């Protein structure tokens, strides 16, 4: 598996950057995890929007879905220009029918509801889900292929179930929207100390902190989390590729 960070920012994109979006590749299959604001403008650094094979959405806050309509129109226009663009499956939960319905657009994209109680097969990937602690229904994902495991927390305050869910993962892509001296519980987000501690308890091999805040010195997040986690820990960086 190969993961490329397309957008690492929480809430809204930083200047010339993008909010949440991550490209996961294996055996020539391209899966986009979340599609926040600015993702479609950054994605062509890696591949064109019409080359995606599937998209999976954790929840329907704008910083995770703002570019879904943009992606749909990118593929529509490429079809008008003569490219063969098959309907793109976009997987999302159906606990918000209004937002879920937007995943389907003409013959361009098809919204497919995942069942969070079951493992989902998407191309070469097997995805299991954990409902997170967030103001709207949101699902973390444990994605497996070729005996490697990526866990994406999506947006969530810390919950004990994360420890088992992420156990032994090769890579933990962990939200970290708050500094160690802040309490993100009511906002549905983790702080750096919680992220590091949970990673240590789960015995993951590597942590990438993402969904980053727009204030303060974000390098401080790493030092605070590293006080709790003995493994490799870094910040998510735009267009950084990590091979598992």
Topology record:
Blueprint: E1 2-7, E2 21-26, E3 29-33, H1 39-42, E4 54-56, H2 62-65, H3 68-80, E5 88-92, H4 97-101, E6 109-113, E7 120-122, E8 125-131, E9 139-145, E10 148-152, H5 161-165, E11 171-175, H6 192-202, E12 206-210, H7 219-226, E13 232-235, E14 241-243
Parallel strand pairs: 3-4, 4-5, 5-6, 10-11, 11-12, 12-13
Antiparallel strand pairs: 1-2, 1-14, 2-3, 7-8, 8-9, 9-10
Helix pairs in contact: 6-7
Give a verbal description of the structure.
With 244 residues, the chain is an alpha/beta fold. The protein has 7 helices and 14 strands. The strands form 2 sheets. The protein has a 7-stranded mixed β-sheet, with no helix packed on it. Strands 7-8-9-10-11-12-13 form a 7-stranded mixed β-sheet. The longest helix is centred in the N-terminal third of the chain and has 13 residues, at 68-80. It is globular, with a radius of gyration of 17 Å. The termini are close together.
Can you tell me the residue ranges where pLDDT is under 50 for at least 5 consecutive residues?
none
Principal-axes geometry comes out as: globular
Q: Specify Rg, calculated over alpha carbons.
A: 17 Å
Give the averaged pLDDT, no decimals: 97
Which series of helices and strands comes N to C? EEEHEHHEHEEEEEHEHEHEE
């Amino acid at each position: 598996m190969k993961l490329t960070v397309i957008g690492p920012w929480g809430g809204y994109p930083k200047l010339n950057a993008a909010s949440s979006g991550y490209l996961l590749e294996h055996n020539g299959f391209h899966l986009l995890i979340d599609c926040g604001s600015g993702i479609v403008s950054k994605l062509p650094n890696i591949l064109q929007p019409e080359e995606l094979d599937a998209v999976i959405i954790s929840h329907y806050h704008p910083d995770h879905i703002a570019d879904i309509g943009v992606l749909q129109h990118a593929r529509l226009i490429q079809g008008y220009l003569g490219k063969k663009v098959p309907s793109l499956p976009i997987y999302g939960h159906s606990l918000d029918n209004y937002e879920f319905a937007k995943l389907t657009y003409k013959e361009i994209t098809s919204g497919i509801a995942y069942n969070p109680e079951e493992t989902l097969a998407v191309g070469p990937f097997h995805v299991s889900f954990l409902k997170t602690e967030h103001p709207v229904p949101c699902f973390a994902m444990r994605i497996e292929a070729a005996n490697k495991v990526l866990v994406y927390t999506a947006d969530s305050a810390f919950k004990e179930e994360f420890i088992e869910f992420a156990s032994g993962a090769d890579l933990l892509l962990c939200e970290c929207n708050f500094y160690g001296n802040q309490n993100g519980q009511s906002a549905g987000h983790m702080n750096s100390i919680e992220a590091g501690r949970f990673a240590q308890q789960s015995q993951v091999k590597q942590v990438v902190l993402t969904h980053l805040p727009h204030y303060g010195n974000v390098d401080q997040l790493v030092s605070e989390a590293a006080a709790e986690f003995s493994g490799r820990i870094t910040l998510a960086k735009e267009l950084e590729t990590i091979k598992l």
